[in-house]
Design a protein that fits this description.
The complex is a heterodimer of chains A (238) and B (187). Helix content of chain A is 43%, strand content 17%. Chain A contains seven helices and eight strands, in the order H-H-H-E-H-H-E-E-E-E-H-E-E-E-H. Chain A starts with a helix and ends in a 10-residue tail after the last helix. Chain B has one domain. Chain B is 57% helix and 17% strand. Chain B has six helices and six strands; from the N terminus they run H-H-H-E-E-E-E-H-E-H-E-H. In chain B, strands 1-2-3 form a three-stranded antiparallel beta sheet. In chain B, strands 4-5-6 form a three-stranded antiparallel beta sheet. In chain B, a hairpin with a 3-residue loop joins strand 1 and strand 2. The chains are: A alpha+beta (238), B alpha+beta (187). The interface between A and B is large, with 48 and 34 residues.
Chain lengths: 238, 187
Amino acid sequence: MINQDIVNYINAEMAKGTSRNDITNALVGSGWQSKDIDEAFNATSSVAAKNVASSSLYGASQGLHVTEKDYPITILWIFKAPINIILVSVIALLFGYYFPYLLIALPIYLIANPLIRANFHYSIEDKFFVVKQGVFSKNQRNLPYGVIQNVLAKQDLFDRIFGLASLRVENASLGGGGSDSKRRSFRLTSSRQEAESVGASGNKVNIPGLRKKDAEALKNIILQKMKENPIEDNQSGL
Amino acid sequence: MKIATSNTRDQYPLSTRKIFKKTLSSIIVWGLLALVCVVLAFVVAPSSSGGAIALFVAALFFLFIIFIVWLYQRWYFAVYFYDLTNDYIVIRKGPITPSEITIPYERIQDVYVDQDLLDRMLGLYDVHLSSATVSSGMSAHIDGVERQAADGLRAILLNTVKERISKHRSGQDVVRNNTPPPAPPTI
């Protein structure tokens, strides 16, 4: 016979994340028979599975495994820097200025950007946001959801015209990005033209060139994960 | 034009004086620039008829720029969006290049209210939030609210943060004290 008390206890412990072994040991310590414990586990696991499936607002946050294949950096992003260069050069030529160095940079961007894009992978794991990147030297960054400080979504002029957006997820590492503040010299208008890097650098993970609705969806998934994984008492999110 | 509304913006609205303030600061900057140019022009070529025409053109150009700035500020004011949802605060600004920042309440490190000189003259306040990153301090602010809205925003933010932090802490304690139920007596 299954006692409701033990079922409730098991449910509460599993919601906290206690392993089945620990729960079993605690129950045995309280005097329960092992076959009763197993029956109770069988009863709870079917209920728990149903709860998991129905409680997620965005299915991707619980069951599915979201990677960059679901919300990819668009191919258009590869051409963003070259198009900007061409535009600037044309406008400058109209005024009578010629920038040869810009045009040299053009083929470099056309080769580098596809490589960067092909080597950039991210995935929404259960407890971490994993980012792998690197053309020559590879690195992998694991970001627990509990320490994400803020999520920024930005669009510059090119993005606005072509319906792209870039997403930036920041945590508090490396002084919260304080080392970049040296570049903030006095400007008449607030400048958002800092070089858009791809992937993890400093305290942030920057994913540029997403489609606008992909960026929104990914942002919502990350926010949902952040809500489900709040920071524990210790300062590290691990 | 349509103003981006939310519950929060209805409760703690931006002041329309903000448009005036931003235009005023542009007038000061451009006005100084125009004055310097006009003075230089007079010093370089002090002929009377040419000087009058140049002055007139400069004045027209100045007025045109101010008009464009005023239109842009009106557009900026309309697109400015901020909302306090259940879990986070979202602030979206920028008509041409929008940028949006989302900060969950638990990550808010401080709430900071200030006024610059023009703000003081017009009775406006800026409410700044920041999380532990430098860029949040630069971009997460609601500027151009009046006194009542500034106090209200500050109070509601601080309250929500306090509630969130204490709920976490008490939630942890309750869960940790869960002990297994006593076994029924064996027959």
